[in-house]
Design a protein that fits this description.
alpha+beta; six-stranded antiparallel beta sheet; disordered N terminus
Length: about 140
Protein backbone atom coordinates (compact mmCIF):
# COMPACT_ATOMS: atom_id res chain seq x y z
CA UNK A 1 0.00 0.00 0.00
CA UNK A 2 2.93 2.36 0.64
CA UNK A 3 4.07 1.95 -2.95
CA UNK A 4 0.54 2.73 -4.18
CA UNK A 5 0.40 5.89 -2.07
CA UNK A 6 3.84 6.96 -3.26
CA UNK A 7 3.03 6.45 -6.93
CA UNK A 8 -0.35 8.11 -6.94
CA UNK A 9 0.08 10.88 -4.37
CA UNK A 10 3.38 12.29 -5.54
CA UNK A 11 3.47 15.65 -7.24
CA UNK A 12 4.22 15.45 -10.94
CA UNK A 13 6.46 17.94 -12.68
CA UNK A 14 4.48 19.41 -15.54
CA UNK A 15 7.33 21.41 -16.99
CA UNK A 16 8.94 18.65 -19.04
CA UNK A 17 7.65 16.05 -21.43
CA UNK A 18 10.35 13.53 -22.25
CA UNK A 19 10.14 10.28 -24.17
CA UNK A 20 11.08 7.38 -21.90
CA UNK A 21 11.20 4.65 -24.51
CA UNK A 22 11.78 6.00 -27.96
CA UNK A 23 12.55 2.84 -29.89
CA UNK A 24 11.08 4.08 -33.16
CA UNK A 25 13.40 5.54 -35.73
CA UNK A 26 13.04 9.25 -36.31
CA UNK A 27 10.30 9.71 -38.87
CA UNK A 28 11.46 12.37 -41.30
CA UNK A 29 8.50 11.72 -43.60
CA UNK A 30 5.80 13.31 -41.45
CA UNK A 31 3.47 13.73 -44.41
CA UNK A 32 2.89 9.96 -44.48
CA UNK A 33 1.81 9.90 -40.82
CA UNK A 34 -1.89 9.75 -40.01
CA UNK A 35 -3.89 10.68 -36.93
CA UNK A 36 -3.43 7.30 -35.25
CA UNK A 37 0.37 7.84 -35.29
CA UNK A 38 0.50 11.02 -33.21
CA UNK A 39 -1.25 13.39 -30.84
CA UNK A 40 -0.37 16.86 -29.64
CA UNK A 41 0.08 18.41 -26.24
CA UNK A 42 -0.38 22.13 -25.66
CA UNK A 43 1.93 23.09 -22.81
CA UNK A 44 1.90 26.29 -20.84
CA UNK A 45 0.01 28.07 -18.13
CA UNK A 46 -3.15 28.36 -20.21
CA UNK A 47 -6.42 29.68 -18.81
CA UNK A 48 -9.24 29.95 -21.32
CA UNK A 49 -12.64 31.31 -20.27
CA UNK A 50 -15.51 28.92 -21.01
CA UNK A 51 -17.36 31.52 -23.06
CA UNK A 52 -14.35 31.96 -25.40
CA UNK A 53 -13.16 28.35 -25.51
CA UNK A 54 -14.61 27.48 -28.94
CA UNK A 55 -13.34 30.70 -30.47
CA UNK A 56 -9.78 30.35 -29.13
CA UNK A 57 -9.45 26.58 -29.51
CA UNK A 58 -10.66 26.45 -33.14
CA UNK A 59 -8.37 26.99 -36.14
CA UNK A 60 -8.95 30.14 -38.16
CA UNK A 61 -8.16 28.91 -41.68
CA UNK A 62 -10.64 26.01 -41.61
CA UNK A 63 -14.39 25.94 -41.16
CA UNK A 64 -14.78 24.24 -37.81
CA UNK A 65 -18.02 22.84 -36.36
CA UNK A 66 -18.49 21.85 -32.74
CA UNK A 67 -20.21 18.45 -32.37
CA UNK A 68 -21.29 16.66 -29.21
CA UNK A 69 -21.26 12.87 -29.43
CA UNK A 70 -21.26 10.30 -26.61
CA UNK A 71 -21.00 13.08 -24.02
CA UNK A 72 -17.78 14.38 -25.59
CA UNK A 73 -17.07 17.52 -27.64
CA UNK A 74 -15.45 17.12 -31.05
CA UNK A 75 -14.42 19.78 -33.54
CA UNK A 76 -15.07 18.82 -37.14
CA UNK A 77 -12.89 20.23 -39.90
CA UNK A 78 -14.07 18.91 -43.26
CA UNK A 79 -14.08 15.09 -43.00
CA UNK A 80 -11.66 15.15 -40.06
CA UNK A 81 -12.17 15.83 -36.38
CA UNK A 82 -10.21 16.44 -33.20
CA UNK A 83 -10.94 16.74 -29.51
CA UNK A 84 -9.36 18.09 -26.36
CA UNK A 85 -8.62 16.49 -23.03
CA UNK A 86 -7.24 18.33 -20.04
CA UNK A 87 -4.35 16.30 -18.61
CA UNK A 88 -1.86 17.22 -15.86
CA UNK A 89 0.94 18.22 -18.26
CA UNK A 90 -1.31 20.30 -20.55
CA UNK A 91 -4.14 20.14 -23.08
CA UNK A 92 -4.08 16.98 -25.17
CA UNK A 93 -5.28 17.14 -28.78
CA UNK A 94 -6.27 13.85 -30.39
CA UNK A 95 -7.37 13.40 -33.99
CA UNK A 96 -9.31 10.92 -36.07
CA UNK A 97 -7.13 8.21 -37.60
CA UNK A 98 -7.43 9.46 -41.20
CA UNK A 99 -6.25 13.05 -40.74
CA UNK A 100 -2.89 13.90 -42.28
CA UNK A 101 -0.06 15.12 -40.09
CA UNK A 102 0.21 18.29 -42.17
CA UNK A 103 -3.44 19.24 -41.59
CA UNK A 104 -3.33 18.36 -37.88
CA UNK A 105 -0.12 20.36 -37.42
CA UNK A 106 -1.68 23.39 -39.11
CA UNK A 107 -4.70 23.11 -36.78
CA UNK A 108 -2.44 22.76 -33.74
CA UNK A 109 -0.26 25.70 -34.76
CA UNK A 110 -3.27 27.93 -35.32
CA UNK A 111 -4.78 27.01 -31.94
CA UNK A 112 -1.47 27.78 -30.20
CA UNK A 113 -1.28 31.11 -32.04
CA UNK A 114 -4.85 31.88 -30.89
CA UNK A 115 -3.80 31.18 -27.30
CA UNK A 116 -0.70 33.35 -27.68
CA UNK A 117 -2.84 36.19 -29.07
CA UNK A 118 -4.57 36.34 -25.65
CA UNK A 119 -1.20 37.15 -24.04
CA UNK A 120 -0.58 33.64 -22.72
CA UNK A 121 2.40 31.41 -23.40
CA UNK A 122 1.74 28.10 -25.12
CA UNK A 123 3.81 25.50 -26.92
CA UNK A 124 2.74 22.66 -29.21
CA UNK A 125 4.48 19.36 -28.46
CA UNK A 126 4.16 16.46 -30.90
CA UNK A 127 3.77 13.08 -29.22
CA UNK A 128 4.12 9.74 -30.96
CA UNK A 129 1.38 7.29 -30.00
CA UNK A 130 3.79 4.37 -29.72
CA UNK A 131 6.17 6.18 -27.34
CA UNK A 132 5.95 6.30 -23.57
CA UNK A 133 6.43 9.73 -21.96
CA UNK A 134 7.47 10.85 -18.51
CA UNK A 135 5.82 14.00 -17.15
Amino acid sequence: MKLFNFLFKRKLSYQSVEPVNNTREVDNDRESRKGNDFEFLIKGDVDIPNDKFDQIMSPISFTCDRIERDNWIYYQVGNDEFSYSFEPPGIQMTFNKEITFEKAKQIGDEVVNNIKSTGQNAELVILGNSDIYKF
